[in-house]
Amino acid sequence: MTCASNQCFKPVRHSSASLQCLTPVPHSSASLQCFTPVLHSSASLQCFTPVPHSSASLQCLTPVPHSSASLQCLTPVPHSSASLQCLTPVPHSSASLQCLTPVPHSSASLQCLTPVPHSSASLQCFTPVPHSSASLQCLTPVPHSSASLQCFTPVPHSSASLQCLTPVPHSSASLQCLTPVPHSSASLQCLTPVPHSSASLQCLTPVPHSSASLQCFTPVPHSSASLQCFTPVPHSSASLQCLTPVPHSVPHSSASLQLDFRLLPEGSNYVMSNGGGAASSSTHLLDFLEEPIPGVGTYDDFHTIDWVREKCKDRERHRKINSRKKDSAWEFTKSLYDAWSGWLVVTLTGLASGALAGLIDIAADWLNDLKEGVCLSAMWFNHEQCCWTSNETTFAERDKCPQWKSWAELILGQAEGPGSYIMNYFMYIYWALSFAFLAVCLVKVFAPYACGSGIPEIKTILSGFIIRGYLGKWTLMIKTITLVLAVASGLSLGKEGPLVHVACCCGNIFSYLFPKYSKNEAKKREVLSAASAAGVSVAFGAPIGGVLFSLEEVSYYFPLKTLWRSFFAALVAAFVLRSINPFGNSRLVLFYVEYHTPWYLFELIPFILLGVFGGLWGAFFIRANIGWCRRRKSTRLGKYPVLEVILVVVITAVVAFPNPYTRQNTSELIKELFTDCGPLESSQLCQYRSHMNGSKAFSDNPNRPAGPGVYAAMWQLCLALIFKIIMTIFTFGLKVPAGLFIPSMAIGAIAGRIVGIAVEQLAYYHHDWFLFKEWCEVGADCITPGLYAMVGAAACLGGVTRMTVSLVVIVFELTGGLEYIVPLMAAVMTSKWVGDAFGREGIYEAHIRLNGYPFLDAKEEFTHTTLAREVMRPQRSDPPLAVLTQDDLTVEQLQGIINETSYNGFPVIVSKESQRLVGFALRRDITIAIENARRKQEGIVLDSRVYFTQHAPTLPADSPRPLKLRSILDMSPFTVTDHTPMEIVVDIFRKLGLRQCLVTHNGIVLGIITKKNIIEHLEELKQHVEPLAAAWYRHKKRYPSSHGANGQPGSRVHYVQLICSFQDGDDKEQEEQEEEEEEEVCLLDDSSL
Amino acid sequence: MNTVCLLQVFSVTCFVLLSQATAKNSEDIRCKCICPPYKNVTRGKIYNQNVSLKDCNCLHVVVPMPVNGNDVEAYCLRCECKFEERSSGTIKFTIIMYLSILGLLLLYMVYLTLLEPVLKRRLFGHSQLIQNDDDVGDQQPFANAHNVLSRSQSRPNMLNKVEHAQQRWRRQVQEQRKSVFDRHVVLS
């Protein structure tokens, strides 16, 4: 009858009281009573009484937070009892009772009376002998407390009960029983009357006559109770009683009773609950109660999405909605809404992009005319609208009406004369300069992402890249506003590419209204594909061309469903723009033309020549523009974007004004060039000599000799051509919204018109030639110069962008005549062939490569014979791969690995010894999960063990609570073996849209291949074959700013940076190697612990 | 969710305004006839008349007729008449809206670039400015996670929210500016 008692009255913090009993004689009792009223104290009682009938009790009366009490009993003899009573009334306390009593008739009870939040109580029993009982009573009346009781009693007649009386939300109670022997009973009673509580009872009792009951009295929504039984043998009973007083009418409450009768051998229960690696849904079943961590599954800026994962996520969501569909009318409505949301979002996108395109058209026209003058009667009208009803009847005076005043008229009071010319010249430059200056300032201050064309970036985004803010509200607004300014300033740029960007912004913004699209990056890209179709549709008034553009040029993943939605979006957008009627001509574009004259076979020769010109121009433009952009990117030139814009616009305005063909709006120029010379035309281009001899000339409308007006126009057009070519090279890439379509088309149209007139005159003067004799009789009109202009425009555009089908369809929709498909096809194909001979990539791909975006072009073929082993990282000379082990890392070590490396994901392996692959965990998910656990879970400290397995590893008794990270583990990472040919790997990456792929050998992880590695590899191979392709010298000595102040790589810009950094020389690589080495040392140290 | 509501209210207002502005105006239709030179009429002429669609032909629009008698029919055959319709309300609404948005943006830009630094310096002195600079450089991986979590959790009141959103937007723009203008990693 020994007794040991220890009474503490220490009133000061950080004290600890411990009582260790090693009394080997029965009937002893040990009690520890603490009255420490101050924080951070801990009391522990460890008993090693090996003889029966002993009792150990620990009573804590610590009324202050952050105290912990633990009682560990190792009494191996029956009839012992251990009780732990906690009366800690303040938060953040934890009480744990671990019993390892191997003999029957022992009882362990833990009573918690902690009335304040964030406390946790756990009771773990390992009583292997029958007739033992474990009970955990919680009376925690405040939220965020958790109580768990884990029983591992393998012998019958044991009972485990968990009673929770937590009346406040966000509490969770779980009871896990693994009692494999009959006649055991487990009961969980919850009386949680407030929402957001969850109760789960998991039974894995494989033997009959066991009973499991879960009683819930949760009367409010959002609570969930689940009872999962895997009892494969009869005579067992499982009951789930829910007394939710508003059953099924209030959303989000769920009670599930799942009985799984799959008979599995003992010991393999873990395997089954792991999901077996086959279907991810079964994992989620068991992880059901693990509260999803906010932010997990999202992506960082400048990272690549994992298409496979996103598609899986969507399918699972879809399955969930479908399975709930029949439950209630509400769920059915929700499923309908979900099914329709795709069409809704594209409709909204179409509406918005159509309306914005109308706004841009109207405002750009008005602002463009503001450079010349102003409408006095109504200042919001442009020149054309101002003189809407004026009756100035002659051709010469058609542009003059009393309401419209040029600046010279307003300021000087005279419309004619050198003074007014100079005044108009000055005002033209002044307005152009101020528009461009405003545009670049707005872009710089509010939304730098609004500059440029946007199509290269959208292509990259659609292929699965994340650029945060690129499709945001501010970008949309600034791009819309500044696009008008940029177009009106007279720079050599168009609004078509930016319109695609604007439409994509609309698509992105509207997709936030629908959870189906806002939460899933892959689904969002389907909307963006449709949006880009709508953008082209309004830019050219070509809905079908828009869909084909989206398919051919920008989209990466384009299933049939997206095709239909793109078509619908394009239709809606075109309809809206048509009903706005921005040009007043009932057309969607200014340069809509209609031809009715036929073309002759011999004309294919000039058409093909135009194609050659287009191809040459495209190749030259891409070279020159990329060279200039590279210079801008790498030299000091890039430091002065505003100055550069001002310079370019001043030069443009000064040179453009004297020439009437460059002074006017580029769209108008194209219109004039496209339009055929009919009797109704009055422009200089149509001043043929037959004009002179009166009215007779028009009756039979033959090819006529050119008059002096035409020759003058030729000179002006040639000058305009040179001017446009030079200015476009320097304009594309300025920090204002700038599209490429219109200037390219203008150049092609000018060249085409010149060729057309030349051929026409040739036919007139040499109508006895073999070619012309066949088709062109004297006096017949067989050459249409406007058609040449159009073919030239298509050829030049094709040479620059390397589009084929969509381009032909766009131009065909512009003219509305199927007749000219063959000339267009001939010219476009020729220009593509010629262009491809000089360099395979179009301007957009070239810009993508210049910026180093991770874009894996689906059009390029991979013809080399390398193996996955040669591409994977780490290479032979590199330090070994950074991996995580599944259950022997601590939080601190994990944080260390994350802080010291810059990798975006880590393979998880079984252990350092076996190296077998378990799964893959993303860096972002790990950081979020750790941070989340620190906030929400109690007892997670730096020493806490991190485990990715289903069940916690066996830990030493005094270790802190482990952290389970299974929910963020991707258990089905894509793997290839080390001997897989790269051909196949590249194909897998392209077709599945993978982000990374693990390389294994006999199930052992060897390395990893990321998208970035593949792009580097392709680049390397390309340089071996054609060294002229891309000089990477620009990266030398640059990008120090991508690293933070302390030399740590900034996480934000990594994806882009790393691509560059590979080529970039030794210093940085060395730095990275050092980092990796350090981390390796840490890892090894840890594993030896 | 709030932004969504605002967006909806805004679009509804726009729609109402637009539908009011686009109410039919009799000035908005015209018939435009372009007539080429003919015999003793040496110059081509353009006629605009405010007539309805069914009256849009040479006979109704071309007044006074430059030729007489038998030639009228021949002259009119050469003329090309097009009925055109515009919506002056839409144009007016669009231009005014565009100009007002542009004006607001310019004011805000002037405020952000010129006035605010001065005001801040006067109100808070130098310490605030330095602190702001420190915030921007915060790029540690765990700080990032911190941001993500706090975004999903905190529910402050309206004013704080606006303030917070503005701060976040500013930081984003600064980041964008850095990557576009300084580092040239995107859009160059």
TrEMBL record, chain A:
The keyword Disulfide bond does not apply. This is Chloride channel protein. Keywords: Antiport, ATP-binding, CBS domain, Cell membrane, Chloride, Endosome, Glycoprotein, Ion transport, Lysosome, Membrane, Nucleotide-binding, Repeat, Transmembrane, Transmembrane helix, Transport. PROSITE patterns: CBS. Its main location: membrane. PANTHER family: CHLORIDE CHANNEL PROTEIN, H(+)_CL(-) EXCHANGE TRANSPORTER 3. Pfam families: CBS (PF00571), Voltage_CLC (PF00654). It is found in: Cell membrane; Early endosome membrane; Late endosome membrane; Lysosome membrane. Residues 872-938, 969-1028 form the CBS domain. One of its GO terms (molecular function) is ATP binding. The keyword Acyltransferase does not apply. Gene3D superfamilies: 3.90.1280.20, Clc chloride channel (1.10.3080.10). The chain crosses the membrane at residues 340-360, 428-450, 470-491, 498-515, 527-551, 600-622, 642-661, 713-734, 746-767, 787-812.
Automatic annotation (TrEMBL), chain B:
The chain crosses the membrane at residues 95-114. GO terms for biological process: positive regulation of canonical NF-kappaB signal transduction. InterPro entries: TMEM9/TMEM9B. Its main location: membrane. Keywords: Membrane, Signal, Transmembrane, Transmembrane helix. It is found in: Membrane. One of its GO terms (cellular component) is lysosomal membrane. Residues 1-23 form the signal peptide. PANTHER family: TRANSMEMBRANE PROTEIN 9 FAMILY MEMBER, TRANSMEMBRANE PROTEIN 9B. Belongs to the TMEM9 family. This is Transmembrane protein 9B. It comes from Pleuronectes platessa (European plaice).
